[in-house]
Amino acid sequence: MAPKRVAVVDMGSNTGRLVVFRLLGDGGWYLEDEIREVVRLRAGMTADGMARQAVQRGIAVLRLFRRFCENVGVDTVIATATSAVRDAANGPDFLRRAREASGWELRVLSSEEEARLGVLGVLGEVPLETGIVLDIGGGSAQVSRVRDGRWFDGVSLPLGALRLTELFRMSDTPTADEVGALRSHINEMLDSVEWLGPLGPEEEIAGLGGSIRNLGYMEHAQLGWPLPTLRGFQISAERVDELIEQMLSVSLARRARIPGLNPDRADILPAGSLVLQEVMRRVGATRCHTSVNGLREGLLLGHLHGDTPPKGDELRALSVDILAWRYGLHRDHAERVRHLATRLFDDLAGRHGLDASYRKLLEAAAILHDVGGVLGYHDHHRHSQYLITLNGLPGYTARETALVALLTRYHRKGTPTPGGYRRLLGGADLPALRWMSAFLRMAEYLERGRRGTVTNVEVTDWGSRGMEILLSTDGDASVEEWDAERRAVPLLESVSGARVRMSVLQSGA
Predict the structure, then answer these.
(1) What is the DSSP string of 457-497?
(2) End-to-end distance of the chain based on CA atoms, in angstroms?
(3) Mind listing the pLDDT tens digit for each residue in 141-154?
(4) Distance between CA 286 and CA 290 in Å, rounded?
(5) Are 109 and 84 in contact (CB under 8 A)?
(6) In sequence order, which residues have a C-beta less than 8 Å from that of residue 444 and are 6 or more positions away?
(7) Are residues 74 and 152 in the same domain?
(8) What is the pTM of this model?
């Protein structure tokens, strides 16, 4: 059967996007392609509706999107429009022309639907159980409450980055009075949201939309962040303040050259960033999750799962499965490695003292340790690390993603070290990395033949300073013993400070 593709079209106030998702088994998916074009539907909008040039830009982009979908073979198209079309007096005429040009009936999302679907996308990536989600678009900003990992309620405010930029028309290098007037307006709008107050002890804030993502990319570029993805990233309130000051202190031409800043957004990013800054100040947030997912992913998740997409451990397991499916892993081998590695973890719990959260990371790494094999056998352990950090793992923090990637990096050889990820890890993570690398490496070499010859392991004490690993086998395990002895035992002995010997139990025991 040919692969299924779902395209999501999002005609926003500032940008038109077409994203193509490839569907995998059991609810899995990944982004396969994307087209983004600045359409600025709201630019020049009056009481009569969208400007003629804006409508022409939008219709031309929709024709392009339609042709692209025909070329790549899309099975399902979910086509939507948001704030600009929703607010425009000539919105119905635009929808008619859009249908004639593309053949699609664009669904105009209500402000509540836009907020709910944006949150749905965020919760498909960010481990947020309770708190606030802020979605800053071109025409509006949605502020939503999340309870128990679900959208609770929210409001839409006329605080989109393009809308504010056109409304206030600040100087090329904005003056303090101009910025102050914009801040006052933002806070006047926020005052209307009675429940928007200080976050509770367990509450967090997550942000989506082009303005917030672009701040994240600026921080990535200037901070030298060790992971290439925004998944799992958080930007501090202090850095939001500093980046805004950096943008407002220079001309538009110089602003467009700031590292990490998308030149297409140089004119509207200050306004969008000020909305984030004022919301963070109002709720007392010290950090904000930056979500790669957004409305488009929310539309896909709603299509696949309704209002109850995977969350928590289910989301994390699905993230691992998606990478495994995407890169065609030998799943039987990976599951056997997972079983052996976790048996070692459990039997040696008294020695390593690691909690259950590390066991879950070890399981993820065991499933993904060979993912880099899609790029070639040689150095596939390094390729695995690269692919995991490149794609990210929805549901995992940046620290957890780094640990999983490092474990795959050291599943074959080398002395486990944090390398460039040191800033992401805590003090307890460094010894944990060595212990878990030893378990994963031992499991890998006990599965050397990739046919389940070693079916189980059991660790017992051997004298006062040693341990014995008893191997249950189904057939001749001489190859596994030989390779584990020379490639895995040295690291386990180094980490544990104990001598290690292996013994084979009766076949099938």
Answers:
(1) EEEEE-SSSEEEEEEEESS--HHHHHHHHHHTHHHHHHHHT
(2) 42
(3) 999 999 999 999 99
(4) 13
(5) no
(6) 337, 369, 411, 412, 488
(7) no
(8) 0.92
Residue 52 lies in a domain: yes
What local confidence, expressed as pLDDT, does residue 509 receive? 45
- Number of domains composing the chain: 3
Name the one residue in this structure whose structure tokens are 């367990």: 202
Structural domain harbouring 265:
112-298
pLDDT in tens, 408-420: 999 999 999 999 9
Cα–Cα distance, 253 to 422 (Å, whole number): 36
- 456 shares its domain with 358: yes
Among all chains, which residue has been given the structure tokens 């008893």? Answer: 470
CA–CA distance, 342 with 330 (Å, rounded to integer): 19
* Per-residue pLDDT at 473 exceeds 80: yes
- pLDDT value for 224: 87
Q: How would residue 2 be classed by pLDDT, with cut points 50, 70 and 90?
A: low
Containing 167, the helix (H) or strand (E) segment is: helix 161-168
Taking the C-alpha atoms of residue 183 and residue 188, their distance in angstroms, rounded to an integer, is 9
Q: 102 with 129, same domain?
A: no
Give domain status of residue 78, yes or no.
yes
Domain final residue pick, 235, 264, 298:
298
For the stretch 450-468, pLDDT in tens is 999 999 999 998 877 899 9
How high is the mean pLDDT of the chain? 94
Q: Give the pair of three-digit tokens for residue 69.
A: 């979908």
* Other beta carbons within 10 Å of 60: 14
Centre a 10 Å sphere on the Cβ of residue 415 and count the other Cβ atoms it contains.
9
